Amino acid sequence: MRIMAQVCMVMNLDKCIGCHTCSVTCKQTWTNRPGTEYVYFNNVETKPGLGYPARYEDQEQWKGGWTLDKKGRLKLKAGSRLKKLASIFYNPDLPGIEDYHEPFSYDYAHLITAPAGTKAPSVSTRSALTGREMNPTWGANWEDDLAGAPARALQDPNIVALPENAAEKVKLDFESVFMFYLPRICEHCLNPSCVASCPSGAMYKREEDGIVLVDQDRCRGWRFCVSGCPYKKVYFNHRTGKAEKCTFCFPRIEAGLPTICSETCVGRLRYLGLVLYDADKVLAAAATTDAADLYQAQLGVFLDPDDPAVAAEAERQGIPHDWLAAARRSPTYALIARHKVALPLHPEYRTMPMVWYIPPLSPVADVTTAAGYDDADADSVFAAIDALRIPVEYLANLFTAGEVGPVRMALRRLAMVRAVMRAHQLGTHPAIDLAEVGLTEDDAEDLFRLLAIARYEDRYVVPPAHAEDAGRLLAQHDLSGCSLDTEGGPGMGGEGPATADVTGFHLRHDGSSDASVAGRDGHGRLHLRVAEHPSPGPLGPAGAGGTR
Amino acid sequence: MSGITGFQLWWWVILPYLALATFVIGHIWRYRYDQFGWTSRSTELQEKKLLKWGSPIFHYGTFAAISGHIIGILIPERWTAAIGIPETAYRWFSAGAGTLAAVLIIIGVAILAGRRLFVARVRATTSPVDWLALILLAIVIVMGIAETIGVGLLGHGYNYRQSVALWFRGLFAGSPDVRAIAHAPFLYQLHATAAWAVIAVWPFSRLVHAWSAPVWYLWRPFVVYRSRRATRPNEPGTSGRRWRRIGVHY
To answer: What's the complex ipTM?
Structure first.
C-alpha cells in the first residue's frame, strides 16, 4: 500500500447558475496574457452542448485518454510511444484553433481616430493571431444558455451515445427543453494521460498533493499533452510555443487557501479537500475491463482516513499529521466516498479524474412542483427522477460511463435529504425511511451541513503545504519568479522585489494572514497583511445562520 | 599551406571556426539562460491542412539528407574503397538516394515555405532570427538540390569527396585543406558557406528543437512524479527571458 494525498474538488451542479464568475477570475489570474487569449483553465459549459473545444468529449475523434489493448492492458488511445514519436511532425489528433475559436479583440482606436462624419464610428473585430479583421463563428460561450441548441446541441457526444429510446426524450423545443451548467477545470487525474503523452517529460504530478503541472522550462512544444488529455484542459500557448494548463492555483493551495475559482464562486458550489488513495491500486483500477465499472473501481482506490490502520500507515509513510487531520475533515471525501452523491466526469477515459460532480436535482423538483406534487414527498420525487427532463441516461453518459444506477442513487439521496430536513424544519413526521437510500440520520445531517449550509470552512479544508519544505517547494516551480523581471520590465537589472512565498505566510484564525518577506539580498523587509475573511454571508456571522 | 590568399584563409578557415565557436558557446548560453524559449515553436494550432503534408515530408527528407552527408562527407573515400565500393558505384548511389531525398525536401519546403509566407496566422509567429535561419536554410537546400540533381544526376558528377569533404573533415582535425575547397565549383562553395552561416545562427533560432528529439520517451515511465527536491536558485541577474513583453509584436 502506497498512500498518497490528493487535493481534489467537488462541484454541486444543483447550485451552478452559469454566471461564469469562476471563468472570469481564473482568466484574470492566469491567462490574461497574449498567447492565452483562447485559453480557459476554468470554463462553464451549458449542457446539452458541444463544449469547448467543440465536441471534445468524442474520443473516437480526438483520441484522448486511455483505452485497453487486446490483452486488457492500459494503453494511450492515441497509440504507442513509437507511433507518437513518428508523428511528432504532425499530430493528427490536435484540435485546430477553429475548434476553440480564433482569439480576437476590437479595434478600439478607431473610435478616436475615425475621421469626422455623420455616422458614429463602430469598432470591428481584429484577430489576435494576425491583427486582421475577422468574423467570429464559434467560441467558448457560443452556446451559452442553449444558444443555437436546436441546430447543434444534438451533436453533443453524450446525446449521440444515448440509446434510441432515451435520445427521444431529449427535447430541444422551447417548452420542454432542459439544460444545466457544467463548470470544468483540469481533473488532476490519478492516472493522467497528458503526463503520459508528454514526450519531453515536462509534465508531472506532484507527489505531495497530486497537482498536475507543466514545467515551462522543459516543455518543448511537442503538443501531445493537448491531444492526450481527453478533457482538453491542456492548452497550447500560441506565442510561447509551450503547453499550459490549470494549476489548481497551487500557490494558494500551498498557503491553505481555496483556488480562485472556488473562492469567487457565487453559488458556493465548490468543495476542496484531501482524498487519500492507494497509488499501487490506480493502474489496476484504471484497467477495469467494463467501463461501466470504472466508477466503483475508482472508489475502491480511495482510503478511509478514519480507519486507524490507514492513518497509522499514512503517518509511517510520511504524510504529515495535520494533513491526515484535514483528510478526516475533507468535504470532498465525504461527498465522494462516504455519501456517494458526487460522481466523476467521464470515468470511461480511464484517467481517474479527481474533480467530481453532484448531479443536478433541481430540474426534478421543478417537474414535481409543476405537476402539483409536493417535492417533500420522496415517492413523487423518486418517480420524477426517472421522468426527468434531463434523462438519467444523459447524466450517466457524463458521470458513470452510462451506468444509470449510481446517478439515480445520488439523486435519490439528494431528494431524501431535502425531504427529511424539510420535515425537521416544519416539525412534521412523514414516514420517511432513510435506509431506503442507504443513509443514516447522521449522514442526512452531514449532507445538509455540507450542501445546504455550506459554510466556507466546511467547503474548503485545505491544509497548507509544510513550511519547512517551502524553500524547496518554491524552487520546484519556476513560475513564481517576479513577473516584472521581463525584458525591459521594471524588474530587469535588479534582483526584483522579494517574491512572497509560503515560508512566512500563515492564515490566522480570524481569517487574516501575515507574511513577513525578506528581500533576496537580505535587506528590505516588506510586511504584508492580507485580509482573507471567510464570508459570514448575508445572514450574519457564521453560526448564526446554521440551524444547530 | 603555401599559395593561400588571406581571403581564402579568412573565408574557409577563420569564418568556419568562428561559426563553430558561436554554435557551441551559443548553445551553452541558450541552454543555461533560455530554457523557456527553447521550443519547437509548432504552428499546428494555427494551420493544420498544409502542415499535415509539408512537415513530415520535409523532416523525413531532411533525415535522409543528413544521413547522406554523414556518408559522403564524414566517411573518407578510402574507407568505402577499402570495403570494395568503387567511386562510380558510390556516385550513382549518391545521385539516386540523394535525388530521392531532394525530391522529398523540395515538396516539403514548397509546402512549408508557402505556408509560412502566405498563411497570415503562421507568418505572424515568425521572429526575425527565425526568418534569417529559414532563409539561410533555404539557400543551403536549394544549392544542395542543385548539386545532387543538377550535377550528380543529370550532369557529369563531381567528386566532392576529394575536395569539400577533405576540407570539412580537416577543420575538425585542425588542418583544413583550403585549396581543396577553394578550387571547388562555386555551387559547392556557396552551399558550404551558407551551411556555416546556418550553424552560426542555429543556437539563436528555433532550430534548437532538433537537439530536443525526445527519444527518451520510449523508455521512461508513463506518469512522471516530482517531489520537493532542493534545486539551485537562479543565478543573480539572470532571471532569463520568461514571457514576451506584453504588446510587443512577435
So the answer is: 0.87
